[in-house]
Amino acid sequence: MREYKVVVLGSGGVGKSALTVEFVSGNYVEKYDPTIEDFYRKAIEVENTMAILEILDTAGTEQFASMRDLYIRNGQGFLVVYSVTSKQSFGDVCVSRDQILRVKGSDQVPIVLVGNKADLEKERQVPSSEGMILAERWNVPFYETSAKSTQNVNEVFAECVVEIMRVLVPRRGKGSGCCHKCNIL
Ligand code: GDP
Ligand code: MG
């Protein structure tokens, strides 16, 4: 089974851990230690094949920028998460994307833009249309999710695998075998 390395990025409190834990275990965690940064694994079916996801739920606690660069370099696909209840977190996703593109040295990186906490309609600060417009500008898929109601939780992880397949896998077959990009996989 092929393994896919997914990194969950976004500012503190947007629900990265809640989304990851909901996806991996099916449980909604109300309180999750904000400093825990850990790997999780889960097998899912994507486009009729089984895939193993290795998910890094980041916590922004790394002491050195080089650490962050390292996990971005090791990641193949990225969930870039904001909370629809926080305009600031929506601004922060641009910083995350810039980091990813800089470290990868490419603008063809598998990214899914995720607006979480969609269940909190009354506290919404970021309209769906703004997420949509940004995703269009980045040319990436966009979903609003709720770790609480489970809305689109499985979908964003599956979509990230689809993006990895779409962006990275075709490159392997190009040319006569090896190129400097082969080690991405
Ligand atoms: P992280 O810092 O990005 O990992 O954020 P957490 O996963 O720790 O979530 C921060 C807070 O937001 C917690 O109190 C969660 O229960 C809450 N939260 C996370 N996702 C959702 C969601 O989809 N809906 C609601 N209502 N609350 C959420
Ligand atoms: Mg967390």
Task: Summarize the helices and strands and which ones pair or pack.
Layout (H helix, E strand, L loop, with lengths): L1 E8 L6 H10 L12 E9 L2 E9 L7 H10 L2 E7 L3 H18 L6 E6 L11 H11 L3 E3 L8 H15 L1 H5 L12
Parallel strand pairs: 1-3, 1-4, 4-5, 5-6
Antiparallel strand pairs: 2-3
The chain binds guanosine-5'-diphosphate and magnesium ion.
Short summary:
The chain has six helices and six strands. It has helices spanning 16-25, 65-74, 87-104, 128-138, 153-167, 169-173; strands spanning 2-9, 38-46, 49-57, 77-83, 111-116, 142-144.
* End-to-end Cα distance: 13 Å
Considering DSSP H and I runs of 4 or more, what fraction of the residues is helical? 25-40%
Major sheet details: 6 strands, mixed
Order of helices and strands: EHEEHEHEHEHH
Estimated radius of gyration: 16 Å
Question: What hetero molecules are in the model?
Answer: guanosine-5'-diphosphate, magnesium ion
Low-pLDDT stretches are 174-179
- Shape, please? globular
The oligomeric state is single chain
Number of strands: 6
Mean pLDDT over the full residue set: 91
* Widest β-sheet, arrangement of strands: 2-3-1-4-5-6
Note the total helix count.
6
Taken as a percent bin, the fraction of beta residues is 15-25%
**Structural class determined from secondary elements:** alpha/beta
Structure description:
- The protein has 185 residues and is α/β, with parallel strands linked by helices.
- It has helices at residues 16-25, 65-74, 87-104, 128-138, 153-167, 169-173, and strands at 2-9, 38-46, 49-57, 77-83, 111-116, 142-144.
- It is 37% helix and 23% strand.
- A six-stranded mixed β-sheet has the order 2-3-1-4-5-6, with helices on both faces.
- It is globular and about 40 Å long.
- Mean pLDDT is 91; it is low at 174-179.
- Magnesium ion (MG) binds at residues 16-17, 32, 34, 57, 59.
